[in-house]
Design a protein that fits this description.
By secondary structure, the protein is mainly alpha-helical. The protein contains 6 helices and 4 strands. It has a two-stranded parallel sheet with strand order 1-2. Strands 3-4 form a two-stranded antiparallel ribbon. The longest helix is centred in the first third of the chain and has 18 residues, at 12-29.
Amino acid sequence: MPLASSRGYGSLKLQHDVAKVLNERRSKSGQVAIVYFISDHDPSGHDLQRAWKDALRHFGVLCVFVRIGLTQHQVEVENLDRLAIEVKPSDSRSKAFIEQYGNRCWEADVLPTSVIEEALDSHIRAWFDAKLWKRRDAEIERARALL
């Protein structure tokens, strides 16, 4: 599973490189990519997801975005209130964010890695076909044995 980290709004080169990988995989497998997205739960973090969706669409990528962190639900379940910061009123995206989530926000790095790992595992298990994987793995091992 490829991984990309943009550390904020990604460069056009990074977006193009990610799109190239996803488009190549689609041409080989016919499958639509699932992009598991993690970013801050703040106005810019939510806009970052929108920006990545737009960029990948621009490069012809067919994909589904799934935000696995940081979400309002995780903030509540993990009791992260003490780690909240105020939404910056100077951020042009703050009004819409405040209307939907309130005037407090969180950086993604306050989320324990175990929660991210659990979210990834849960989402992957939802579509992963273990029988098919084992069968394909056995085919590969048989082919290796012939070499």
